């Protein structure tokens, strides 16, 4: 079923024109990209199915094209390519914002950026935001994968990458696939180890952010740094 087959007041395009994009639900915005549904399922239902299957918009941001292909109605390359392109544009737009402004001016943007990149990964990922002297984003690098401990995250590698980027400060980050964002004692110990190592080369650790889909925890905000 296409948009033209939906009742007039249920058509996302008309609603967007009349009330603005902010008035649309996530499923409605996604339906605008999809344009058509499948037999027995209109486009809004297909959009809602995708959100539920992949854990909302955050989950969709990290969904591989092959995973999308497994959903009935997403087998064609056109829809998958368009959706993948839009999601990548969202990530890049957020990154550009952080490159223009100090992270202290937009702490929520930092959390959202990290959620978009690593929040929905099925395995643990340790990433570092490398910042310039004005605390603007230079780049994000994913450095380690797997269970994160002091033995699996190598301070020497983090220091090496900080020097490579001529970073003045960093924001450490990792995800919790379990969904809990509370830091473990190992997380806190790792943070202090990396903080001490980076201090030797005059690089500040501004924060360590833990993310999961739709949630984030800032050690700096909780006074753990």
Protein described:
Keywords: Hydrolase, Metal-binding, Metalloprotease, Protease, Zinc. Belongs to the UPF0758 family. This is DNA repair protein RadC. Residues 103-225 form the MPN domain. GO terms for molecular function: metal ion binding; metallopeptidase activity. It is a single chain. The chain has 225 residues and is α+β, with helices and mostly antiparallel strands. The chain folds into 2 domains: 9-90, Orthogonal Bundle (DNA polymerase, domain 1), CATH 1.10.150; 102-220, 3-Layer(aba) Sandwich (Cytidine Deaminase, domain 2). Helices cover 45% and strands 16% of the residues. The protein has 9 helices and 5 strands. It has helices spanning 12-19, 26-34, 43-54, 56-61, 65-69, 77-100, 107-118, 155-164, 185-199, and strands at residues 125-131, 137-145, 169-175, 204-212, 215-218. It has a 5-stranded mixed sheet with strand order 2-1-3-4-5, with helices on both faces. Strand 4 (204-212) and strand 5 form a beta hairpin. The longest helix is centred in the middle third of the chain and has 24 residues, at 77-100. The protein starts with 11 loop residues before the first helix and ends in a 7-residue tail after the last strand. The relative contact order is 0.10. The mean pLDDT is 82.
